[in-house]
Give the backbone structure.
Amino acid sequence: MDDDFQHILEHGISFGRGGDKAKDDGKVKTKAKKKQYITGAHGSGSARQKAKYREQRANRHKK
């Protein structure tokens, strides 16, 4: 018990996320390019608003 306390005083406590760090394959995890997110179909208000802006921008130069 006393050794644990001394170890914490000398080295501190790590509050890292944990998990497997060797799993990193260089891919970026994002929802931004998924079809449902782009169309706003998954129900998020911000996604629907962004989908509306994307549609307006796509239709801006069409006549």
The radius of gyration is 23 Å. Helices lie at 2-11, 35-39, 45-59.
